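Re: your question from the hallway

Yes, I did run it. Sequences:
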Amino acid sequence: MSAALQIRSLSLDMGSDNRVLLDDVSLEVAAGETVGIVGESGSGKSLTALSVLQLLPGAQMRIVDGSSIRLQERELIGATGIELERLRGARVAIVFQEPMTALNPVRSIGSQLCEVIERHAGLVGAAARERAHELLRDVRIVDPERVFDSYPHQLSGGMRQRVLIAMAFSSEPALLIADEATTALDVTVQAQILELLKALVRDRGIACLMISHDLAVVRQSCDRVYVMHRGRVVESGSSREVIENPRHPYTQSLLASLPALRPAREVTTNTSGCVLEVESLSVRHYRTGRRRSHPASQLTAVEDVSLELRTGETLALVGESGCGKSSLLAAIAGLVPSEGVLRFAGHAGRPAPGFVQMVFQDPLGSLNPQWPAWRIVSEPAAVQARLSRRACRELTVALFDKVGLEPAAIDRLPREFSGGQRQRLAIARALSVGPKLVLLDEPTSALDVSIQAQIIDLLLDLQRRERLAYLFVSHDFAVVRQIADRIAVMRRGCIVESGPAGEVLDHPCHAYTRELLAAVPRI
Amino acid sequence: MKSAILHPGGGQRALEALRQGARIPELAIGGSVFVVLLLLAVFGDLVQTHDPVKSDLTRRFLGIGEGGHWLGTDHMGRDVWSRVVAGLQWSMACAFAANIINLLIGTALGLAAAEREGTLRNFARQVTDALQAFPSLIAAIVVVVLVGQGFVPLVLTLGLLSWPIFMRVTHAEASSLYTRDYVKAANIAGVGRVRIMLGHIVPGLRASLVSVFALHFAALLIAESALSFLGIGAPLGVPTWGNMLAESRQYVLIEPRLLLVPASAIILTVIAANLFGDGLGIHARRGRRAGDR
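Structure:
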């Protein structure tokens, strides 16, 4: 079997300061084969794929002499701009992570799809239309006529990703690059899309290069895998072999930090007092431009939810995007108005100052980019206790120590910290006022797995020491297993199932929970 | 060691920002020309060689450098260099004062509209729309004719009529800043509304507002010169660029210098202000991109 794509000792550096981005990367993808590249952010996995099309994101990046990229026996290094342009989209297609931004929001799916077909297949008018319908059926869209006339915002994330895959296949490419193509999707949708890609690749004999940070996804859908670390391929082999018997220490550490393979939390019965009681809480959003009494102006995000949380306990709220888990959190934090009863430590109404704190998903977005770390971390305390500048700085040093940050860094700006450190900053801020309840809104889902494991360890450690109660929102069952005492599964604004973590995960009662658990890719 | 952590040096960051700014050509060129013009305006009295309004009919139409007049004299025998400097002082002061009024009104309304939903926002938007739909130069002419001439009426007219751009920029930027997670975090921490606005929102606006301030400065300068040229801005006899242009019209064939000097002064100032504004915008965007990483 000859290789459709063959990369030989590819090296890439920043022309100016000779910083090496890729170092002697070699890989092969045969026709009909799916090959994964896994690695954490900054490992060079996306750069490797983009080098094939020579679409490098930095102007100064330079492919070092002696590198070779061959697509179906044709050398691409040194190809002219016109040759490369003919290649892109035609022989090589890419599916990106974010399906919304990859489609033009003001044009219908049909017109965008036909444009690609006209360009690559040379079909026009009714023929192009016919082909578009055929492609939409190929990606298992049941009603191609409706989707053809829809606009991107009218489709779900999974449907949009199907449309992008249809576009990618419109030119019968030899190589398909899927760059984190399912990362932004819910687990059930992810499972469907992976299944679809696998079938298309197999049936058409296309070479598929799949880039992912998720070892479980790679294990499930790739024949072979290359593990990248700091611009080098550190290990390669059949995906089963690499994941079951990793030889390189980096691969071993990557697997060890995988949430699914880490120990589950030991659940103890908790009889301490209630920190939070929620009774039949509803959150409604109103659309602007209509009267509030108008039935269509109202969107119920959370409906009649009740739950309780005790000191030192973690309750995980699990559900897919749009199920209302973030709205519920915002209502508890007092950020959005809600109906129903909220009791904090037995008292109805607003909590005492500093009782509730929150940690957000995007660590950078939740830190004011213009403030030095000490000002960010001490802000809640500064407001409540009217601390002086000096006291704020001293408090920050103490908190930095607690969350494992270097005290010398308190004058740095958020952008001068790494992703995991930023999340530590956000946790330090939450702790500055000695809260009893911390709301955690997907605090680990923007982080690499090894960092994820560190943050979870930190959270567990802090919980033990400070007797914190956590309300932990997540879509990731593997993370939930490590941190939760109890789990509540949400769907369409309601809690469909709740109970002790082990029971929900191992013996789910509700059909929806079973469906969610079945869709989780397994190692 | 610990005391070094608690007492940082703040000057280093400013120096680094200056060094990065110097790498943007728009900012370096526009900024330095603008600073020179500003210094000229502030210390104008020291560099004027003659009294800008004193006429001497025996020394009319002297050429460049003749009789100690660097840029010669005009049809009344007045020193052109001193008059250009006086015009710079007038224009700078007028555009600056009007711009400050614009900034205050526009930013306050924009912030209020971003913070408060409902009636206030709708009102602020509609006033802004109405004002922007109206050609502001025509409106200024009407107001100046009604109120009268002079520095204060001119500043107030320009100041009260051309703030919509500040309102729009502030509203758009502040609305997006209000949705940030760090504002939510401050909300949860019990930070008050005023403190959120002054601590989180206004500092985030600084970069764009400085840029708009410089760009709008150029627009105000042109508007001021146009009104003076039409004879309804600065009172007659006051040495401003608009008045100089208006007076030189009759002699344009005999002595084009009298037209070219104030015209070049306007062009130079406007280009400098525009480059400065563009450069500041680029600088701010680069900073933001660095922040996103």
